[in-house]
Amino acid sequence: MSIGILYESVEWSNEELASYLNKSGIKTELINLEKDAVDLDSILKHNLIVNRIFPSSPFRGYKKSFKLALSILRVIADSNIPMINSYRSYQYDCSKVSTSFVLSKNSLSVPKIYSYYQGDININNYDISYPCVLKPDCGGRSKYTFILNNQEQLEAALKKVPEVPFIIQEYIHPDKNYTTRVEIVGENIMTVLKRYIGKGNLSGYHSGSIYEDYHDCPQAILKASKKALKYLNIDMGSLDIIETNSKKFYIIDVNATSNFSEDNIEMLGFDPIKVMSKYIERKYKKLF
């Protein structure tokens, strides 16, 4: 009886997760898809798989893992091996278009997508309002994400991006100068943070944002966040939300694979990886 953790980059969060689970008495193996030759028989011997492949992997030099992951996760799913997060949730994690469609279909507010394209595009064929956002359909950590104020800036940015699927999306102004980050593990909200706007008018760890506890986050946002992860079949994940002065809010991003660094413990006041490991442990024991 054992757990396998699929990953692609050496991160403190992955090492710590495996350490906690092994200390709990559950044999846990870290499986690096970037370095290791894939031994499907060995992977399929595990009783539970934890998927830690980030959608930003191709932009961080981990193209091998990204290419292998979908096929491997599909084999695991077809083998009826329980997974956190599942093959389906990984598909959504790797496509902002698919995520946006599911959330919109279920009456959750998301920014409008003006165009979904790869390669050359004639933006004159699309009704684009400015400012707009250009970003990869599959990505993360703000890689190749631009806020553009006019057609000239958009045309210049289009020449700089790699030839992978991109979206041109409605820009939702952060009226309160922050985005809301909601982290959920299982049925429980682990933390809610205000993440203030940083470099490039973007919000995120890699943009130098300042974080602050959001103790009085509106209940409507918390309920919508739980619904969103349920619709996307995500066990552990996070959402980025923008609130407007009119009290509307928009889900601008959903992540099925949350990452943390060791210095987050002091900021949060607890160890998020320990919370995640306890959830995995409970799920494992409930299944077996």
The averaged pLDDT comes out at 91
CATH superfamily of the largest domain: ATP-grasp fold, B domain
Strand content: 25-35%
- The top-level CATH class of the largest domain is Alpha Beta
Shape: globular
Question: Uncertain segments of ≥5 residues (pLDDT<50)?
Answer: none
Backbone structural class? alpha+beta
| Element order: H for helix, E for strand | EHEHEHEHHEEEHEEEEHEEHH
Helix content: 25-40%
End-to-end C-alpha gap:
9 Å
Number of helices: 9
What's the story with the biggest beta sheet? 5 strands, antiparallel
Give me the Rg, rounded.
19 Å
List its salient traits.
single chain; 288 residues; alpha+beta; Rossmann fold; Dna Ligase, domain 1; D-amino Acid Aminotransferase, Chain A, domain 1; 5-stranded antiparallel sheet; 4-stranded parallel sheet; 9 helices; 32% helix; 25% strand; globular
Describe it.
With about 290 residues, the protein is α+β, with helices and mostly antiparallel strands. Helices cover about 30% and strands about 25% of the residues. The strands form three sheets. Strands 11-10-9-12-13 form a five-stranded antiparallel sheet. A four-stranded parallel sheet has the order 2-1-3-4, with helices on both faces. The protein has a four-stranded antiparallel sheet with strand order 5-8-6-7, with helices on both faces. The protein is globular. The mean pLDDT is about 90. A hairpin with a 5-residue loop joins strand 12 (about 235-245) and strand 13 (about 250-255). Helix 1 crosses helix 9 (about 270-285). It has three domains: about 1-85, Rossmann fold; about 115-170, Dna Ligase, domain 1; about 175-275, ATP-grasp fold, B domain (D-amino Acid Aminotransferase, Chain A, domain 1, 2-Layer Sandwich).
